[in-house]
């Protein structure tokens, strides 16, 4: 998903968007102190939307755009070799996700089989094969069907064992399916935000990115492409807002309204960045995004590994991150600001190897 081939593969706006999304993911995943975090830098506990909730769907949207750019000229090629490459890449991403889940103690008896990379692997596998075998109208129809069926399933089918429709944590239909069929440890004990049923609407999220990518390939002027991305994004987000009134925006359930609101935001962001960077030629302030974006998943994996030193390994009586936040707080700084500054410091630490890889033109593809 890094550096896709194709006529528009070197869109600096897409590279920057991918990289800034990874940087934001690292920042919110690794606060300086888990007890001191600004509300918008936390995931919403249940219904609602914060800055943090936008990050994962934005990355899946980018995956969809990248699929369209990478495979648009390969639809007529022999499928066998392509399928093998797609399957192998998906398995590698899933395997790395499993490795990260086992850190730091490799406790196989308490293993979680889901996570961010696991979901990326699954949606990439499904959507890449889907893209090679369908046109945009079929993809659009499938996304709409998924979102409608998911909405109807969660709002009309009573949770088994309870006898009524529930959308609360751990007692909804998605949680019940995970309790019955999801192996291993669940993130929240009785439910998992990357569970089985919620993977289907996440596929719809990636399809919206595929549709945006195919729009970018149309014989339109750059300004028209930007305008269409902005207009469509606003319309989709508005539709998601109104759907939210009867089917709440919820990242943990990855509700249909959540898909529309976040995909609309991602489309508007891509349209704006495409206008500013690729059309207007703006280059100031995008270096971090472009460099992280060149090795996005590698940077994400490296952050989890470096966290062993910067967050887990004891330094005296406590960990390095807690020492740093305590020192800044004692100087009079708001602990939440101190926690955020340490998170940004950790992003910069991860930028160093990403920069070295970029400088040597090394692009790691899982």
From TrEMBL:
<protein>
    <submittedName>
        <fullName>Putative acyltransferase</fullName>
    </submittedName>
</protein>
<feature type="transmembrane region" description="Helical">
    <location>
        <begin position="196"/>
        <end position="216"/>
    </location>
</feature>
<feature type="domain" description="Heparan-alpha-glucosaminide N-acetyltransferase catalytic">
    <location>
        <begin position="10"/>
        <end position="215"/>
    </location>
</feature>
<feature type="transmembrane region" description="Helical">
    <location>
        <begin position="50"/>
        <end position="71"/>
    </location>
</feature>
<dbReference type="InterPro" id="IPR012429">
    <property type="entry name" value="HGSNAT_cat"/>
</dbReference>
<keyword id="KW-0472">Membrane</keyword>
<feature type="transmembrane region" description="Helical">
    <location>
        <begin position="140"/>
        <end position="157"/>
    </location>
</feature>
<keyword id="KW-0808">Transferase</keyword>
<feature type="transmembrane region" description="Helical">
    <location>
        <begin position="228"/>
        <end position="247"/>
    </location>
</feature>
<keyword id="KW-0012">Acyltransferase</keyword>
<keyword id="KW-1133">Transmembrane helix</keyword>
<dbReference type="GO" id="GO:0016746">
    <property type="term" value="F:acyltransferase activity"/>
</dbReference>
<feature type="transmembrane region" description="Helical">
    <location>
        <begin position="337"/>
        <end position="358"/>
    </location>
</feature>
<feature type="transmembrane region" description="Helical">
    <location>
        <begin position="86"/>
        <end position="104"/>
    </location>
</feature>
<keyword id="KW-0812">Transmembrane</keyword>
<feature type="transmembrane region" description="Helical">
    <location>
        <begin position="288"/>
        <end position="313"/>
    </location>
</feature>
<feature type="transmembrane region" description="Helical">
    <location>
        <begin position="12"/>
        <end position="30"/>
    </location>
</feature>
<feature type="transmembrane region" description="Helical">
    <location>
        <begin position="116"/>
        <end position="133"/>
    </location>
</feature>
<dbReference type="Pfam" id="PF07786">
    <property type="entry name" value="HGSNAT_cat"/>
</dbReference>
<feature type="transmembrane region" description="Helical">
    <location>
        <begin position="253"/>
        <end position="276"/>
    </location>
</feature>
């Amino acid at each position: 998903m890094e550096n896709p081939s194709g006529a528009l593969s070197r869109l600096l706006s897409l590279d920057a968007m991918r990289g800034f999304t990874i940087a934001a993911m690292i920042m919110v995943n690794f606060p300086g102190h888990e007890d001191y975090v600004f509300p918008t830098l936390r995931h919403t506990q249940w219904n609602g939307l914060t800055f943090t909730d936008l990050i994962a769907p934005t990355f899946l949207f980018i995956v969809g755009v990248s699929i369209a750019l990478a495979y648009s000229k390969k639809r007529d090629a022999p499928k066998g070799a392509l399928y093998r490459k797609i399957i192998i890449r998906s398995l590698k991403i899933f395997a790395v996700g499993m490795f990260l889940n086992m850190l730091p103690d490799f406790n196989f008896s308490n293993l979680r089989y889901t996570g961010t990379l696991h979901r990326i692997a699954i949606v990439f596998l499904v959507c890449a094969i889907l893209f090679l075998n369908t046109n945009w109208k079929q993809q659009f129809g499938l996304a709409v069907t998924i979102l409608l069926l998911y909405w109807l399933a969660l709002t009309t089918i009573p949770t088994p064992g309870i006898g009524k429709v529930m959308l609360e944590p751990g007692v909804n239909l998605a949680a019940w399916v995970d309790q019955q069929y999801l192996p291993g440890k669940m993130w929240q004990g009785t439910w998992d935000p990357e569970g089985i049923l919620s993977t289907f609407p996440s596929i719809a999220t990636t399809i919206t990115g595929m549709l945006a990518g195919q729009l970018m390939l149309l014989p339109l002027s750059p300004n028209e492409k930007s305008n269409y991305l902005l207009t469509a994004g606003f319309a989709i987000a508005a539709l998601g807002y109104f759907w939210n009134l009867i089917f709440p925006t919820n990242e943990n359930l990855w509700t249909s309204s959540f898909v529309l609101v976040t995909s609309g935001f991602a489309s508007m962001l891509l349209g704006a960045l495409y206008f500013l960077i690729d059309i207007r030629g703006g280059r100031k302030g995008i270096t971090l995004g472009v460099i992280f974006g060149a090795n996005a998943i590698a940077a994400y994996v490296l952050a989890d590994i470096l966290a062993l030193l910067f967050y887990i390994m004891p330094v005296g009586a406590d960990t390095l991150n807690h020492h740093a936040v305590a020192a800044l707080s004692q100087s009079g700084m708001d602990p939440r600001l101190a926690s955020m500054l340490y998170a940004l410091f950790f992003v910069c630490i991860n930028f160093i190897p990403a920069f070295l890889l970029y400088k040597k033109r090394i692009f790691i593809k899982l």
